[in-house]
Amino acid sequence: YHELGAFEKSAQWSGQAQLSEDGGITVRALENRANALARLSEQSVRELNINEKSATGLDRMRSASDTAEEAITLADTLVGLGDTAERSSIRASAHKHHGIINAVIAVRGTSRRERQSARRKARASLFTAYELYRDRANKAFASTGKFDSYPLLNAIALWLYLSRQPRLTQKIQHALQTQAELSNELAQLARQFDASPPAAGPPRFWDRTDRINLALYQGLVDEKLHRPENQPLWQRLEEQYVEEFRLASERKSNSVIKQV
Predict the structure, then answer these.
(1) Residues 207-260: pLDDT tens digits?
(2) φ and ψ at 222, to 5 degrees?
(3) What's this model's pTM, rounded to 2 decimal places?
(4) Among residues 17, 10, 16, 3, which one has the least CA distance to residue 34?
(5) Could you tell me if 105 and 117 are in contact, meaning their C-beta atoms sit under 8 angstroms apart?
C-alpha cells in the first residue's frame, strides 16, 4: 500500500502490525508507518477545497495535525535507535507537513487562541524541518563535496517561507543563511547537474524536472522571476512544466507539483 501511495491503508496496516503480540514488526515497517502518517496528514488537507472554512473542514485539519504529531513522535523514536539519512528525512518530512497544516489552521481557526497556537506550532515545526534538511545537506556536502538536491531544495524552500515571517526569534534569525549564501549553493548545484555524465538513453523525466525546479528556486532566491519584462522567467518555467506534464503520468506530475 505504501509503494502505491495509499497512505491511509499503509498507516492502518502498519499500525496493526505495530500492536501485534508477536513483536515481529521490522524497523523498516516502522519507517514506512512514520512516512505514511506524515504524508497522509498533508494529503488529507491538500484534498480539501482551498477555501474550505466549514466545521468539518477544520475538524479534518485538526485531525491531520494530530496525525502529523504521531508521525513526529514515531520518527523521533526511530532516530533514537540510530540516526540514518532515511530516518532524518522522515523526521524532517513529518515536521514539514505538521508545519504546513498548522499554517493553514493559523488562518482558518475558529478562535484567536487556536490561531495563535497554530501559528506558533507552524513556525516551530517548519524551523525544525529547515534545520534537519539543512543538516542533511551539509553532511552530504562534507562527505562527498557535492550537494544532495533533495534536502538542499527543501531547506531553501523553507528558508523562503521563514525569512519572510515577521517577528522571528533571534534563534531563527541567526540560523537562517544569507541570500548570497543560498545563491552560491544553487549555482554550485547547477554546476553539478551540468557536470553529471548523461544517463544512457533519453533524458529522464525526473532529471529534466529537477533542472526546472532548480531554475525556479534560483529565480525565487535571486528575486528574478519577473525578469525580463518581455518574457519573464516564471512564464518560461510555466511552459517547461506544462510540456513535461503533457506526456507524464498523473502520479509523476502530481509528485512534482506537490514538491514545488
Answers:
(1) 889 899 999 999 999 999 998 888 899 999 999 999 999 989 888 888 788 777
(2) -85, 0
(3) 0.83
(4) 10
(5) no
